[in-house]
Amino acid sequence: MRIYADWVGITAVDRMTEDKYFIVHSIFDKGINISGADEKLIFIGTDINGLFPFGISVDPVNVQKMKAVINIGDRLMVEDSILRHPRFILDCSRAEIFTPDSDFYNADIKKLLDSIDDISFETYESSFFNMELISDVIKRLKLVQSVESDLRYIIGRGSGLTPTGDDILVGILYGHFINPFINESHIKAMKVLIEEPLTTTVSKNFLHCAADGIFSSRITDLHHHPSPESIEKLLTLGSSSGKDILYGIYMSLKVSHHSSEE
User: 187 with 26: CB under 8 angstroms?
Assistant: First the structure.
């Protein structure tokens, strides 16, 4: 059977031109992860959680059809803009290209903070990531001194496909791109540490994108429409990923933006 994709993320397009084949890495409710060279993933699934830079968006019915005939370890061959599995063809030739927004300068930081203020982050106070700790890390990210120990504490800490610490770091990085404060040396250090076996393959891909200023549509919607509605949509991402990301954004902006106003 031939299935047509609706959207293809620009990072997924690049990965399909770099690799000759992908291996099915993981299968879950809303889609499939396939892995190429150096554990670079492409997510094939619905757009219920927005569009992803390394994602291929397919309607829910066809996602279920693929899941019914695919297994972890299966190989998908790449031919131009087509992925060939023994039981189906995923055709991306008609798909629209999703290029993540990078117009971070358009962010209304005050309005975004005001909208997030209604969200309670009290549960983090009894976790590994209380506000005092995260605040201190954010302050150190502005300085030249090494923050390797801080990054090693955060990266990979927590459970799930994208551990809590990684999601918070994605949020901190988004906060940096709309209100720059992180010393460039620390961005480079993050990219090196992400290559170490500190976290999951899925999380590694999100962190790499975030360090380059590449985020999913649910995140970039916040600087286009810093409204309670955009925040609610982000909060539905994963079991806790959306809130973890939002917490990172909030702390990043609260600490860096307020200190720049002083």
Answer: no
Residues 152-206: tens digit of each pLDDT:
999 999 988 899 999 999 999 999 999 999 999 999 999 999 999 999 999 999 9
Whole-angstrom Cα distance, residue 212 to residue 187? Answer: 9
Q: How far is CA 177 from the centre of its chain?
A: 14
Q: With residue 242 as reference, give the H or E element that holds it.
A: helix 241-261
End position of a domain, from candidates 98, 115, 146: 98
Let me know the angle formed at the C-alpha of 183 by 179 and 188, rounded to the nearest 5 degrees: 115
Domain with 31, as residue range(s), is 2-98
Give the chain's domain count.
Answer: 2
**What does pTM read for this prediction?**
0.93
> How far apart (Å, rounded) are the C-alpha atoms in residues 193 and 155?
8
Cβ count within 10 A of residue 227? 14
d(CA 136, CA 134): 5
- Bridge partners (DSSP) of residue 76 are 22
Residues facing 41 on adjacent strands: 35
Residues 82 and 145 in one domain: no
Query: Which segment, 116-120, 121-125, 223-227, 236-240, is predicted with the most confidence on average?
Result: 121-125
HSE-CB of 235 using CA atoms within 13 angstroms: 13
